[in-house]
Design a protein that fits this description.
The protein is 64% helix and 0% strand. It contains 3 helices and no strands. The longest helix has 32 residues.
């Protein structure tokens, strides 16, 4: 499960390697917002309740990341495979 940043503004991209982590965290925040929640509200919840919400948010983020990856592979296939370096 992804770790929760201290604040929303901590979701800063600090390099290409961490780009996917940044995207995953953004999807987690998107899920929380869709449930009418913020990270601060989740942190204020009882531990087990917060854990369950974050587990569901992480599952949502993983699903969205799979969609992104599948689309990237499709684009590569449509354009003749991955670019050579």
């Amino acid at each position: 499960m992804a770790t929760m940043p201290e604040k929303d503004d901590e979701l800063v991209d600090v390099g290409a390697r961490e780009g996917y982590e940044h995207l995953e965290q953004a999807y987690i925040l998107e899920y929380l917002r869709s449930q009418g929640l913020t990270l601060e509200q989740v942190r204020a919840m009882p531990k087990e309740q917060a854990k369950e919400i974050m587990r569901t948010a992480s599952l949502y983020a993983s699903t969205q990341m799979s969609v992104v990856e599948a689309r990237a592979h499709l684009v590569e296939e449509l354009h003749g495979g991955p670019r050579s370096l």
